[in-house]
Amino acid sequence: MTLLKTDLSGKTALITGASSGIGRGVAKAFAECGAKVVINYPTSAESASANEAAEEIGPSAVTTCANVSVEDEVTSMINFVLGEFGQLDILVNNAGIARSAPVENIPTSDWNDIFSIHVNGTFFCTRAVLNHMYERNSGRIINTASQLAYKGAPGFAHYTAAKGAILSFTRSLALEIGDRNISANCVAPGATMTPILGDVPENILNDIQAGIPRGKLAEVDDIVGSYVFLASDAAGHFRGQCISPNGGDVFL
Ligand code: NAP
To answer: Of 36, 57, 195, 202, which is the most buried if we count CB atoms within 10 A?
Structure first.
């Protein structure tokens, strides 16, 4: 069997929330496939993690600071990318946060923060790149959902609702894009060892692991291949789909 080697040379990719975890892994993998990568990190954060990610990748990486939930910051970020590289071929909407509380205790501010970053952020970034992609009749949009959008999770109603919204947004977007040479799809990672799980107690992580048929929580490297695939020519016929590297936790 011939294994497909993914070639992203000549492409520019923007990955939101790429100073850490899955986004950082995706940026590294895209760069290894030849892409120039733009590492976004939030305005509220120090630049150190993003700079470290860029240094690890080398000269094909640059960083850009923007809170994806703030419209003007997203506009400036996309203008920066287009000014710097002249083109944007791949947008990965990945930035995210997680909070946990039973529904009756979810503060409105937490509900709004979750929706602002996940849903508004995905919308703002996508809207800001679409006309550019339409003009070039070329592009890939990869949104980050979660396997929890399918199975639900007690304590995470705001998070799972936001991820469900991202799935639905992606499907409608794929229909609007129509027969252009642009695709919109989702990756729905299963539980993955990144800082977003930092506050989850060990006994809960053990319970999650016990429920995964593969018997392990994912590492970032277990997840990034799905993004590389959706960015590749091999995924050209995928439209509005969601692929879920989750160790068998959920069957889509
Ligand atoms: P992570 O390591 O915490 O990474 C999240 C990234 O998003 C960080 O770089 C963070 O920056 C950035 N970010 C947060 N708010 C932002 C904002 N307003 N604007 C721009 N960037 C922002 O977590 P992760 O696990 O890699 O999560 C990446 C995505 O995968 C998220 O959408 C998450 O919901 C999804 N996901 C994760 C899992 C999992 O188990 N890990 C499972 C399913 C889906 P700072 O670190 O500076 O805050």
So the answer is: 36
Query: Domain limits at 38?
Result: 12-243
In a domain, residue 250? The reply is: no
Q: In this structure, is residue 5 part of a structural domain?
A: no
Quick: pLDDT tens for 42-82: 988 889 999 999 999 999 999 999 999 999 999 999 999 99
Mean pLDDT, all residues of the chain: 96
CB 95 within 8 A of CB 101: no
What spacing in Å lies between the alpha carbon of 196 and ligand 1's midpoint? Answer: 6
188 touches 146 (CB < 8 A)? yes
Q: Which structure tokens are listed for 114?
A: 């979750």
Q: 97 CA to middle of ligand 1, Å?
A: 5
The answer to whether 37 and 50 are in contact (CB under 8 A) is: no
Task: In whole angstroms, give the CA distance from residue 156 to residue 102.
Answer: 7
**Known active-site residue 159:** yes
pLDDT for residue 88 is more than 60: yes
3-state secondary structure at position 14:
strand
The CATH number linked to 16 is 3.40.50.720
SS3 category, 39: strand
Number of domains in the chain: 1
